[in-house]
Structures are given as C-alpha cells and as structure tokens.
Amino acid sequence: MSHKDTIYSAPIQQIGDFTFDERVVEVFPDMIQRSVPGYNNIISTIGMLAERFAKPNTNIYDLGCSLGAATLSMRRHIHHEGCHIIAVDNSSAMVERCRMHIEAYRSDTPVKVIEADIRDIEITNASIVVLNFTLQFLSPDDRSQLLENIYRGLRPGGILILSEKYRFADTTTNDLLIDLHHEFKRANGYSELEISQKRSAIENVLQPDTIETHKNRFARIGFSSFDVWFQCFNFGSMFAIK
C-alpha cells in the first residue's frame, strides 16, 4: 500500500540531491500521481502501443522500470507467444518492490526484473523499448550512447517509447509551463515549501532536454519516424520507430 508523499513537507536545513531510496519507494505511487500530469494516460497508452508493436519471440525492455507500472501495462496487452519483458532499475529498493508487484499479477508473458545500470544492458532482439521518465536522469553525454544502443538492439519496425520532462528554448513558454506544473502540484495538495524543496533536490539530477533536441537525436541515430504523442504542460511522451 502506498503512503502519502510528505518527504519535503517539513523544512530541511541542507537539501541533498534526490535519490530513489527506500523513503521514495514507500510513497512513489502517490508522488508520481500528484507530480506528473497525465501519468495514467501515459501508462495506459504504453500498454496500447505494446499490443500494437510487440512481435512473437522478441524482447521488450522497460529501462528504469521503478515499481513496474509500464511493465505491468505492457504485460496486460501482450498476447504473443515467446515475448519476454526485461525490466531494469539501478535502485535496489525499487527492484525489490517491483518484483513483489510483478509476482502479484500472474501472466503468460514472463518478466525478469534486473538490478543494474541501464547503460550496461545489452539490448537484443527487441520489438519495444520503454524509457519512462528515465533518460532525463542520465548525464547529457550518456543519452545519445544509450539511444544508439537501443537502436542497434531494436528489430526493424520496433518502437522506442520515451517519456520525459521538457524544457523550452523560449523563456516565456518555459516559465509559463513550469508555473502551470506548479499549479498542478498545488491543486494536488503540495505546499509551497514542498514544491520549492523538491525542486532544489531534483535540479542537479534531472536535466531536461527540449523536444527539438530529442527529435534531432532520433534523426541523427537513424530512426525512421518519431514525434510527440502526448504532452501536458512540460511533461510528455514520444515514440521513435526504427
């Protein structure tokens, strides 16, 4: 059972960088619902895309799987024989809880949950790869390398689903969408102190790209089709097809 996110509700004298530790795992479902606009739509549509793009006898990767929401959504929609889902996260606390969630829902599609750095995972025979709010936590220098590895491991016609927080080159646009996101958090019960302290904690570990940066990267790597399929404020999700 998820607890309410109160991690930043009291004043913190020295705010450290945000980490996916046991405290975050305990409140993560509440945190993500109250912090990421459109999250449920993204998760449900990942399942719909999986139903469309999964191929028999292929691998499906959920890189940065956290508690397994995208993995479970895909597994509910995949009905082909020989599909294997590989869910990866580098947080031991997340992996432990993810395995519990996976085991609680039985399915014919096997899932292997791995504790590892996603940059060390070899992508092979993949029809689907998901990066659901994951790439933004890598250093900018590592992002192209990871996407190139994914591209090499995707089968022709395979899809990458990439959900991210965005920044915008136009300052007025960027500031407006940040303000609307903060209004969204206020409407979901977060205080000004919580919003401010969370922002301070995450600003050094989450460095968002512009949508154009993502598209240019996809084009340079060789994806044949790519675009934004969902956006709400400064959050969204894209697809890239090999």
TrEMBL record:
Query: According to the UniProt record, what class of enzyme is this?
Result: transferase
Residue ranges annotated for the Methyltransferase domain, each copy included: 60-158
Q: Which SUPFAM superfamilies match?
A: S-adenosyl-L-methionine-dependent methyltransferases
Q: Which GO terms describe its molecular function?
A: carboxyl- or carbamoyltransferase activity; methyltransferase activity; S-adenosyl-L-methionine binding
- Reaction equations catalysed: prephenate + S-adenosyl-L-methionine = carboxy-S-adenosyl-L-methionine + 3-phenylpyruvate + H2O
Q: Which GO terms describe its biological process?
A: methylation; tRNA wobble uridine modification
Residues given in the record as S-adenosyl-L-methionine binding sites = Y39, G64, C65, S66, D89, N90, D117, I118, N132, R199
Concerning Pfam families, the annotation shows: Methyltransf_25 (PF13649)
Q: Which InterPro entries match?
A: CmoA, Methyltransf_25, SAM-dependent_MTases_sf
Please indicate if the UniProt record lists Lipoprotein as a keyword: no
Query: Out of the domains of life, which is the source?
Result: Bacteria
Sorted UniProt keywords: Methyltransferase, S-adenosyl-L-methionine, Transferase
- EC number(s) reported in the record: 2.1.3.-
User: Quaternary form?
Assistant: Homodimer.
Outline what the protein does.
Catalyzes the conversion of S-adenosyl-L-methionine (SAM) to carboxy-S-adenosyl-L-methionine (Cx-SAM).
Cross-referenced HAMAP family: Cx_SAM_synthase
Stated family: Belongs to the class I-like SAM-binding methyltransferase superfamily. Cx-SAM synthase family.
User: What is the designated name of this protein?
Assistant: Carboxy-S-adenosyl-L-methionine synthase
| Protein's gene | cmoA
